[in-house]
Design brief:
Blueprint: H1 5-28, H2 30-37, H3 41-69, H4 72-88, H5 95-113, H6 116-121, H7 126-137, H8 139-158, H9 160-168, H10 171-178, H11 193-201, H12 204-234, H13 239-268, H14 275-295, H15 300-314, H16 318-327, H17 334-348, H18 353-364, H19 366-371, H20 375-400
Helix pairs in contact: 1-4, 1-7, 1-8, 1-9, 1-10, 1-12, 3-5, 3-17, 3-18, 4-5, 4-9, 4-10, 7-13, 7-16, 8-9, 8-13, 12-13, 12-17, 12-18, 12-20, 13-14, 13-15, 14-15, 14-16, 14-20
Amino acid sequence: MIASPKAVLALLLAVNILNYVDRQIVYALLPLISSDLRLTDAQAGSLASAFMVVYMLAAPPIAWLADSRGRKPWIAGGVAVWSVATGAAALAGGYITLFLSRTAVGIGEACYGAISPAYVAERFLQKHRGTALAIFSLAIPVGSALGYVGGGKLGMLLGWRHAFWVVGLPGLLLAALCLLLPNDPPHEATPPALAGYREVWSVPTFRMVTFAGAGMTFALGGFAVWMPTFFHRSWGLAVDQAGMLFGAVTVAAGIVGSLAGGYWSDRLRRSDRTADLFVSGWGLLLGMPLAAASIGAPSLPISIACLFLAETMLFLNMGPLNAAMVSVTRLEKRSMAFAANIFVIHLLGDAASPALIGWCSDHFGLTRALLAACPALGLGGWICLAARKGFGRDADAAEAAA
């Protein structure tokens, strides 16, 4: 049995890294897939949208079932489902079958993404929660980078089909290890699904944090899909070079940004209980012009430098924003809160942005399409800072109801 909080965090961090590897590898392979299957940019972007639409629709009912019946089986089962679905993409004979495999990945990852943050957070005291969730969120840059770098390399060495097999099957081992996690007993006070989600959504700070996350997700989701292709087209890099470059920048900036965000939010919280929102908001506001500068840079070195600074700023919020959601949500509805957050941020964010950017790229060019997504980051930052006003009231209400 894996019982200690640090051991639980270590295992679920490893699983979360694989989560993002399997999610992002398709984007590193897009030039190869598009050439082989003769996809338009709109079709290629819709592969990401297919994943996100299913992911966001599956999360709310799964989270309610997990809160009411126990989380561990859903975590282990979700890992197994998305791993099999990732490997199955190797068998795709065309756009439709590849599209369906990505939707299946969305179902599996919804089981994990809606449940695991709350599962981790509840094993740490509030004063350490920002750092714990920041460490857990390191999977986003690390897993994404491995997906881009490994995907590009595997695609060039083995072909895109074999690349899916290589990254998909190890998840079955991690799924088995998840069965050793401590049992998380169901909450008897879990309300009916619709009533529970209405109550979660009635919290003003939760709504604002979610809308801020939607702005960030709209831009970041589009960048995650299209930046390797941007480097390939704009700077003439090979597929594996583009994936390695974007992956290396993402992992370096992600580690620095995530750890710095968790550290500073925990440190500032001693004197300002809204520190999570302060750090997140300013990170998004500062990241917006830096992201635009990276896309419009006159040279590759300047583009890389601006991208690193932009991603460092944007990754500051990975732990703090989740910690803020936990603080304003009652214990028995935290998985439901994360599920509601997933639904809205992807509905308004990257369920549409990859395909929309692809459509704009077909008509106006990829550079202009990516630049048009940048203002969403500034909007998210402004909403985060505005949410500070009511945070104390909502956090006190959640604590009193515990």
